Amino acid sequence: MKFVKWLLLIVCIGDLFARVGDDCPDNYDPLNILSKKNTGIVTELAKPSVASQEITEFNVQSDGKKKYPVIGNNFNSSIYWSKTYSSMNQRHLATDQLLVDDKDKPILCPDTKEKIYLTKQAVKDLVMQGSGRVKCGNHSIFPLSYARGKKFQRKFTVTDSWWGKGAHGVAVIPFRTVAVDQKEIILGTVLYIPSMDGKTLDLKNGKTIVHDGFFLAGDIGPKVKGDHIDIFVGELSDNEADLKKQLHVIKGLKVQRVTDNAIIDKLKAMHAKDYPEGYD
User: Fold this and answer.
1) Pair 42, 22 in one domain
2) pTM of the entire structure?
3) Which of 11, 42, 178, 280 reaches 20 to 30 Å from 270, CA-CA?
4) Same domain, 221 and 104
C-alpha cells in the first residue's frame, strides 16, 4: 500500500510541475496520502535552493541606515560583468592565447584534456572584468578568475562560483559586489548606497528585484581609482542597454560604511559561499 501511495505521489508531483499528464484528479492533494511526519516533503521539493534565494533577495532591513559613517558624497560608478567564452578548436598563433593557471600550467578542458585557447580579445576582456567562464569539449562550462600574476603574465584560477571570485577571495554576486580603490575603501567593507535603495532592477533569471542599497567591497579593478566604484551585474543579457543606462554613469553617489554587525555578517556570509550554477 505504501508503495502505491509513493508511486501515485511521484506521478502527480510530476504533473504539478511539468504539466504533462491528466491522471490526477482536479481536487488532488498530495499531502493527504503522506503520513504526518512526511508532509514537509512536497513543500521542500517546491522550494528553490537556499543559495538561489539568498542571491535574489535584496530586502535587508536596518533601522540605522542614516546613521552610518559617510565615506564620501561624490562617488561615481560604472559596471562590470562576466561572460562565457568558447575555446578555440585550433590554435592560431596570430590571434589565440593559451590560458595558464597560477602555477604556470596550461588550463585543460575537463572533457577532452585539451589545452584551452581563447582569442586575445577574449583574454583581454576576461582580464579587464576579472572573471568569466569557458565553454569547451562536450558542453563543459567552468568559471575562471583572473589571478593577477606578475606584470605581463595573465594567469587564471578555476573556481567553484559561477561568476568567479573577486580580489577579496570571495564570490562575486550580481548587484551585491562592488569593486573599489583600496586607498579609499578597504576590501571586505560592507557599504550602503542610499540612491540604490529602492531601485528596481531586472535579474538574468527574469526576476525583478527592488534593491536594499547594501553592497560588499569584494573586488578591485584596473580603472577603479579614487572616488569610484564598479557595480558587478553578472551576465549581460538583453537588458544590457537598460543596465548601462541605469548604472553605468551614476555621478555624485553618497557611500556609507555599514556598522550594523547583523548586516555585515549577512553580506559576508552570502559572499563566502560558492554558487556553481548562478541563479539557477
Assistant:
1) yes
2) 0.78
3) 42
4) no
